[in-house]
Write a structure and sequence with these properties.
Number of helices: 9
Structural class: alpha/beta
Bound molecules: N-[2-(1H-imidazol-4-yl)ethyl]acetamide, zinc ion
Distance between the termini: 24 Å
Strand order of the largest sheet: 1-2-4-3-5-6
Largest sheet: 6 strands, mixed
Helix content: 25-40%
Order of helices and strands: HHHEEEHEHEHHHEH
Number of strands: 6
Strand content: 5-15%
Length: 330
């Protein structure tokens, strides 16, 4: 499938246009941007990337599954011909654990000056503190961790296969996002960190893999695989990168995913994008769900419910397709 015959390419374009025309009639917000070829997102493949990570076991820092998964991610991105940089660093947690962490950065079109940064965290939380059982055991993190990475691996695979993107893309898999705070307690570090969460993004934003690195903007994916997920507009995204919010939410609606990318205002969440905005000065948004019934991240969050059973190919498709449409329209 690397090279489509010209005739097949034209037929594909006609079919894509036909589909979009049909959708336009039923959508309130119309996708009026210039017609460009956007490759399809393969949600089955994204799902299997999520499954693969979960199969290694909880990706808790300093554990063997964490190390094996990190090696797998590096290998996978390298095999897709992306330029991979590993950033090893150490950080101390709220419970005085010294963690050996690794941010994984992959670049496509390394020499292009116009770049978009895509990111997700790849570690999992070592506790199931919101569960009523086995609270001290790590979670599978199918949604909280693996889903964002799965969508981004599939985006990387798609970009490589079609090989028609002129801008540069950087994918960062942040480590150490989710060790976080002592269960049930909100606390602030006194060791130079600003938060116990988001250790990898705090490190990268102050120590970029290339000293003068910047990007036009960034998109963070966090917990983007849950069944019937809704993504309201996250607070810091709206405050710090409103034009990117507008671009992404209107594109989602334009291609028929307005039921996932809802137009309501969500809370401000201390997530990896906050530190990329604050220290790296790159406007970055966060696509993160809220359960409309109670305003929480969802009942799966930081419990053993967060396994493959709650992952939906439809949600992975809504997010993956939206991000692909956004970047191919730049
Ligand atoms: C807060 O809960 C404030 N930040 C952590 C965000 C998070 C945890 N994302 C995934 N797990
Ligand atoms: Zn989490």
């Amino acid at each position: 499938m690397r090279y489509l015959k010209p005739s097949a390419f034209i037929i594909a374009l006609i079919l894509i246009n036909a589909c979009q025309t049909e959708k336009k009639q039923s959508e309130e917000i119309v996708d009026v941007e210039k017609k460009v070829f956007v490759p399809p997102f393969n949600a089955d493949s994204a799902f299997s990337f999520v499954e693969k990570q979960v199969s290694f076991g909880p990706r808790v820092p300093n554990s063997q599954p964490h190390n094996v998964t990190g090696n797998y991610l590096v290998e996978k991105l390298s095999s897709m011909n992306w330029t991979v940089t590993e950033q090893n660093f150490e950080a101390t947690t709220f419970d005085q654990q010294l963690l050996y962490l690794r941010n994984i950065i992959a670049s496509y079109n390394s020499s292009a000056s116009k770049r978009i940064l895509l990111a997700a965290h790849w570690d999992t939380r070592p506790f199931a503190d919101k569960d009523s059982e086995r609270k001290n055991e790590p979670i599978s993190g199918a949604n909280d961790g693996a889903s964002g990475v799965g969508v981004l691996l599939e985006i990387a695979r798609t970009i490589t296969i079609y090989d028609s993107l002129n801008i540069g893309i950087d994918i960062i898999f942040f480590d150490g996002e989710d060790w976080g705070e002592r269960p049930g307690e909100s606390s602030r570090p006194t060791n130079g960190l600003e938060s116990w969460w988001c250790l990898g993004s705090q490190y990268w934003s102050k120590n970029k893999h290339k000293p003068n690195y910047s990007a036009y903007y960034g998109i963070l994916l966090d917990m983007v695989g849950g069944k019937n997920a809704q993504f309201p507009i996250e607070g810091y995204s709206n405050e710090l990168a409103p034009s990117i919010v507008e671009k992404v939410w209107s594109k989602a609606a334009g291609i028929g995913f307005g039921n996932y990318f809802v137009r309501s205002q969500g809370g401000a969440i201390t997530d990896d994008h906050f530190f990329v905005n604050k220290y790296a000065k790159i406007p970055m948004i966060d696509i993160i769900p809220t359960d409309p019934s109670d305003g929480s991240f969802g009942s799966f969050h930081h419990t053993h419910e967060d396994d493959m059973d709650i992952i939906s190919k439809e949600t992975l498709n809504a997010v993956g397709s939206t991000v692909l449409h956004v970047i191919y329209n730049e």
